[in-house]
Design goal:
Blueprint (H helix, E strand, L loop, with lengths): L4 E6 L6 H10 L4 E3 H9 L6 H7 L12 H8 L3 H25 L5 E5 L14 E6 L2 H9 L6 H9 L4 H7 L2 E4 L4 H17 L7
Length: about 200
């Protein structure tokens, strides 16, 4: 019995991860977006909403969904609160990824788009890892151009992510998204060809 090749996609904030995931999707590769999965878990009736509301009072909106702004204000700068939140959410997020993989069992290649892939040990669930990168000045300009983003928030987010150089050193593939759309598209196509050319890995 075979299973899909599992490619993990990660990269620090502002490195072009979402755009790269979209390229894989356009090539027909099933993509699991960990952020979108967490968004669903945080929504009204989501598996994480009630437990987060109980653990962090005042972080739910009137509909029962997690107010992400209030939650961020509650945990930012408080490592023990952040660790408690992660202990609640990560098992639920991992279960959503397992459900995705079960649904895509017949695909030759699947992509797990996980922002904190190395930070959460998710690389152990992947056959290969692709890291997207860009020069620091490009990263900073991209992030600060986002609505509601400021330098302090950017630095706080970056502080909890592994340094870009360490991610690149641990990657099987590295894609510099500052080199243009055509370059990125060509690199994505080459990675897909490489990972789907040989025999698929045996099921565990």
């Amino acid at each position: 019995m075979t299973r899909p090749v599992i490619l993990g996609l990660t990269g620090s904030i502002g490195m072009g991860k979402s755009a790269t995931a979209a390229m894989f999707a356009r090539h027909g590769v099933p993509v699991h977006d960990a952020d979108a999965a967490v968004h669903a878990l945080y929504g009204a009736g989501g598996a994480a909403a009630a437990v987060i509301g109980a653990a962090f009072p005042g972080t739910l909106d009137p509909d029962g969904a997690v107010d992400r702004t209030r939650l961020r204000e509650t945990v930012i700068g408080a490592p023990e609160r952040l660790a408690a939140l992660e202990a609640l959410v990560h098992p639920l997020a991992q279960a959503a990824a397992r459900d995705f993989l079960a649904r895509q069992a017949g695909a030759p290649l699947v992509l797990l788009d996980i922002p904190l892939l190395f930070e959460t040990g998710a690389e152990a669930r992947c056959d290969r890892v692709l890291v997207v990168t860009a020069p620091p000045e490009v990263q900073r300009a991209r992030v600060l151009a986002r609505p509601g983003m400021d330098a302090a928030t950017f630095e706080a987010i970056r502080a909890k992510q592994l340094p870009d150089a360490e991610k690149r050193a641990r990657a099987d593939f590295v894609l510099d998204t500052s080199l243009g759309f055509a370059h990125a598209e060509a690199e994505v196509a080459a990675i897909i060809r490489q990972l789907t050319a040989g025999p698929m890995p045996a099921a565990p």
